[in-house]
């Protein structure tokens, strides 16, 4: 039977099956830590599942491969403590000692298993996939924020995350040996498209770009409620432009049919609080065109 050190080194070299064995070996210990810190309840299980997702993207940060078990239990412990400190408000798993200053999505992008992870996320249903992307790869990551964007109760968000984590875990070894799309290339294409969209918007040409790249029946949604179509979006962009409001591209997360753009908002000097400081674009794609758009201002969320 391979040692923890051997499994960790193999996982750090990109062997997803080795990571699956390592997680299965230490799952009981991780759960015991969660129960001892958070008690019996959904927070303990959430902390264990979140820790497994952290391990997928951050196994390369572990400096002592022989200490994998202690590292995994530390992630769980920190996650439980973060939940307790937040007085019941769910947040992403806390930073651990070995984590770099890179953002989670950048760590995944740089990691040898990035394409496998994105492939596994892509195999989820659209509703589960959007929930996972928002939770782990966007600034709209609290349960309440995700519920607002998706137009569902907080309990549904928790249920979807539990389903998604279970399915990602099951996919750990099932898809490890298959060929996957290049996640970094897809993210770069999305980044360029985001920059081009902002450039067109700032030049007053969003309508032309939308006619070329977005679905004719594209719809802006507030939760589950439709708000307006292409003309509504073009008019809104024109109003922002007239008010002197600009957006600056910050980041992109791109799945097969869901894309998330993070934007900073630059307000005019004479109206510094005209708009919130940031906005998240959550887009549902159909035939590679944007068919649904949800806009969210993280700074104003509960």
What does this structure look like?
This protein has 302 residues and is α+β, with helices and mostly antiparallel strands. 55% of the residues lie in helices and 16% in strands. It has a 6-stranded mixed β-sheet with strand order 2-1-6-5-4-3, sandwiched between helices. The protein is elongated and about 65 Å long. It starts with a helix and ends in a 6-residue tail after the last strand. Residues 87-112 have low confidence and may be disordered.
- Measured between the Cα atoms of the first and last residue, the distance is 49 Å
Classify the secondary structure makeup into a structural class. alpha+beta
Rg over C-alpha atoms, rounded to the nearest angstrom: 20 Å
Any low-confidence stretches, pLDDT <50, length ≥5?
87-112
Strand element count: 6
Mean pLDDT: 81
Net shape: elongated
- Annotation field: number of helices: 12
Helix content estimate = 40-55%
Strand content: 15-25%
Strand order of the main beta sheet, please?
A: 2-1-6-5-4-3
The string of secondary-structure elements, in order, is HHHHHHHHHHHEEHEEEE
Biggest pleated-sheet summary = 6 strands, mixed
Question: Could you name the key traits of this structure?
Answer:
elongated; alpha+beta; 12 helices; 6-stranded mixed β-sheet
Q: How would you summarize what this structure contains?
A:
The chain has 302 residues and is of the alpha+beta class.
């Amino acid at each position: 039977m391979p040692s923890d050190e051997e499994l960790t080194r193999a996982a750090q070299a990109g062997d997803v099956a080795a990571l699956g064995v390592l997680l299965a070996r230490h799952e009981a210990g991780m759960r015991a830590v969660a129960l001892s810190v958070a008690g019996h309840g959904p927070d303990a299980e959430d902390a264990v599942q979140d820790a497994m997702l952290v391990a997928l993207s951050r196994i390369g940060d572990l400096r002592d491969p022989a200490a994998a078990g202690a590292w995994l239990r530390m992630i769980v412990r920190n996650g439980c403590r973060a939940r307790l400190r937040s007085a019941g408000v769910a947040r992403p798993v806390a930073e651990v000692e070995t984590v770099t200053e890179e953002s989670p999505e950048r760590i995944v992008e740089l990691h040898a298993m990035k394409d496998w992870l994105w492939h596994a996320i892509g195999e989820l249903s659209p509703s589960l996939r959007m929930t996972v992307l928002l939770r782990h790869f966007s600034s709209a990551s609290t349960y309440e924020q995700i519920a607002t964007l998706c137009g569902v109760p907080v309990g549904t968000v928790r249920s979807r995350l539990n389903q998604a984590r279970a399915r990602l875990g099951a996919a750990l070894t099932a898809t490890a040996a298959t060929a996957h799309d290049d996640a970094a290339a897809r993210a770069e294409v999305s980044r360029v498209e985001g920059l081009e969209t902002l450039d067109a918007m700032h030049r007053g040409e969003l309508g032309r770009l939308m006619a070329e790249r977005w679905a004719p029946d594209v719809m802006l949604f507030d939760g589950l409620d439709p708000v307006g179509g292409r003309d509504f979006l073009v008019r809104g962009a024109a109003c922002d432009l007239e008010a002197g409001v600009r957006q600056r591209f910050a980041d992109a997360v791109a799945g097969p049919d869901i894309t998330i753009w993070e934007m900073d908002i630059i307000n005019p000097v004479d109206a510094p609080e005209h708009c919130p400081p940031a906005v998240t674009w959550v887009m549902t794609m159909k035939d590679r065109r944007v068919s649904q758009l949800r806009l969210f201002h993280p700074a104003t969320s509960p």
